[in-house]
Amino acid sequence: MPRLSDTMEEGTVAKWLKQVGDKVEEGDILAEIETDKATMEFESFHSGTLLHIGIQEGDGAPVDALLAIVGEKGEDISSLLEDKKEAAPAAPAQQQDAPVAPVAPSQPQPAIPAGVEVVRMPRLSDTMEEGTVATWIKQVGDTVSEGDILAEIETDKATMEFESFYSGTLLHIGIQEGQSAPVDAVLAVIGPKGTDVQAVLSGAPAGAAPAQEQAAPAAPAHDPAPEAPKAPEAQPAADGTRLFVSPLARKMAEDKGIDLRQVAGSGDQGRIVKRDIENFTPAARPAAAASAPSAAQTVVQAPTGQEAVEEVKNSQMRKVIAKRLSESKFTAPHYYLTIEVDMEHAMGSRARINELPDTKVSFNDMVVKACAMALKKHPQVNTSWNGDTTRYNRHVHVGVAVAVEDGLVVPVLKFTDQMSLTQIGEAVKDLAGRARTKKLTPAEMEGSTFTVSNLGMFGILEFTSIINQPNSAILSVGAIVEKPVVKDGQIVAGHTMTITLACDHRTVDGATGAQFLQTLRAYMEHPVTMLA
Predict the structure, then answer these.
(1) SS (H, E, C) 24-44
(2) Assigned superfamily of 232-289
(3) pLDDT tens digits, residue range 41-50?
(4) Dist CA 414 CA 409 (whole Å)
(5) Which residues does the annotation mark as catalytic?
(6) What pTM value is reported for the model?
(7) Which of 314, 326, 382, 504 could form a disulfide with 472 if both were Cys (CB 3.0 to 4.6 A apart)?
C-alpha cells in the first residue's frame, strides 16, 4: 500500500483495474486508492502478471501492507503469502538491484558529441523520487526551441509541464507515455538532425539510457501483442478523421465510458490529453450524476413498526476526518468569539462588482479576502502551536472548507492576501469543483495557515467549527438575514451576518481574537477599504 500523501496512514482500495491473471505493464493503472484527501490512481512500477490481490475492493489497510504481487505467470508465491512481514523487506532488496548497474560507471565512457544534450527525468518536487510521463507534447523528429514544452510529467504531487532548456531536434524519447522512471533517468535526447543516437546513449554518463533501450525491444520479443495498442499516435474516428490522443487519456476515456469524438483536445495539434478527459463534462452527465445515490442515500427505510439497522463501512476520508477533528478538539483548548456584521454595504458592493463583464464574486469570496487582510494586521492569529515554540507564518494561505459526498476537504488558496476578489472567486470555484470530483492533488490541500467554513448557503444562522490543525483559528460564517436593526436611534430593516471565530488558546488570547474580529468587521462593513 503506497503512501500517496504526507498525512496518509492507511488507504482503501476503491477499485481494482487489473484482476488476478491479467498481464501488467510498467505504468499500467493497477487500482484506484482512496486516501484521507482524495481518490488517486496507483500505477504499477513493474511488468509481469498480477498473481495476487492482498486488499479487496472497499477494504482498508495501513501503508506498506501487502497490496498485490506481480511476477512471472505460474510462479510459486506461497512462501510470500505464508509470512507477509518477510515479504516487505524483500521488496526493497530487489528494487535496489536495478539502480546498482547504472551507478557503476567508473569505466571510461565515449564523449557525447558537441551540440547534443541528454535530457533527464527532472526532480520537480522535494519528495519526488520518480516521475511518470503523462503526455509527450513533442515527438521524435520535431524541432525544439528553448522554452518549448517537451512533456507533461506526473510527480508525487501533481502533473506539471516540463520545458526544454535546449534547442535542436528531438532525436530520441527514452520514457514512453504512461511509463515511470527514477529521477535522472534518460528522458530524451536533443541535438542536430542526423546525430547517431546509439552512440550518444552509449556515452550517457548515468548509464540509464542503455537500460531503457534494452527494455524496449525485450517486451515485443517476450509478448508482442500488448505493444500494438500503444504504437499508434492517432486513431480513426467514425467519420474518417483522425483523433490524436495520448495513451493515458485513451485509457481514462475507456474507463469512464467517454466517447473521444466528443472531447476537444487542448494538446499540440488538437491532441487529447489527460486534462481534457478530467475536465470533460457531457450534457448528459448532470442527470446521470443526479441519479447516482450516495452510500447514505441507499439505506432502505424499515417498514412501519419494525426496527432495523444497517452498518455502512466508513470511507477512508470519513475515518481520517474523525481522527483529525478528535485530535484537534481534545488537544487544542478551543474558545469562541461571535460578532454580528452589517452587510448592507457589502451587498451593494457585490452587486456593482458583479455588473462587470465575466465577473462573479460571492459573499464568501469577500469574507476570504477580508480574513487574508486581517491576518496581515494580526499575525498572532496566523500562527501554529509547536510545543516548545510558536510558528509565525509570514505568508497567508487561507483554506476554504468544501463539503463533498464523503465528508469535508479543505483546498488552500496560496498567498491569499496577494489575490484580488475576482482571483479569489475564480480560484475557489475551480478548487471546489475539483474537490467534489476528487481531482484535487494533495499539494492543493496542504499548507493552510487559517480556515474559513461557510454554512450560510444552507440557511444556518450561527455555528462553531473545530480548528483545522495546525491552524490556530477557524472562522464560521452564517447566513445573511434581514431583521430589524437600530441605526441613528431608529429601528429600520437591515441585513446582518453572524460570524464566529474559534481560537486555540495556546497561541491566540481572547483580546487578540477580539481585535482580529474588529478588523474583519471593518473590512466587511466597508468593502472599499479592501481595495486600498
Answers:
(1) ECCCCEEEEEECCCCEEEEEC
(2) E3-binding domain (4.10.320.10)
(3) 788 878 899 9
(4) 16
(5) 505, 509
(6) 0.55
(7) 504
